[in-house]
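User: Let's play a game. I give you a shape written as tokens, and you guess the letters that built it. Ready? Here's round one.
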């Protein structure tokens, strides 16, 4: 019984190692998402928003009208 518990623990540990995700490649160009509903951290909501990412960082969040 003790051997079974040890084997299950080892099996689960190995499975968890293989379940880890690999990081995505670095962002190569600017990405824009338009027409989305943006929920900001201060509780504000922008219905028709423009969100721009550059180098993996959010550069702009605002209305599409700007």
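Assistant: Ready! My guess for every position:
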């Amino acid at each position: 019984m003790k051997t079974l518990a040890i084997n299950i623990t080892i099996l689960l540990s190995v499975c968890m190692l293989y379940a880890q995700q690999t990081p995505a490649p670095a962002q190569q160009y600017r990405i824009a998402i338009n027409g989305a509903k943006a929920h900001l951290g201060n509780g504000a909501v922008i219905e028709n928003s423009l969100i721009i990412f550059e180098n993996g960082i959010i550069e702009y969040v605002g209305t599409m009208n700007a």
